[in-house]
Amino acid sequence: MLSFSGSLKVFVAVDPCDMRRSFDGLHNTVATLLGEDPKSGALFAFTNKRRSMLKILYWDGSGIWILAKRLEKGTFSWPRPSDVDDGKIRLSSTALALLLDGIDMRGGCRRPWYQLE
Description:
By secondary structure, this protein is of the alpha+beta class. The protein has two helices and seven strands; from the N terminus they run E-H-E-E-E-E-H-E-E.
């Protein structure tokens, strides 16, 4: 289980990303395409075209973390590129937790792939 502080900045890249990218590739994407400082202490979330995989880039002050999640079935509820002008959306840490837990923020319901055991 991941938990984030309420003051943490979270940016979601709305355009799909090549999930083969790792530390340097995602770091470069944050700096060039999103126009943000990758070492600012914010979380940067990326997804693939099918929205079945998610990667998060995070600088903790001493190094860069990459967290990845691949869904066995279904997709993440992801904002559409037409919803924004600059390629990113800022979310609260609570909204990110909802997204990771399978909650569709547009409808406020669980995605079909999510099942609580």
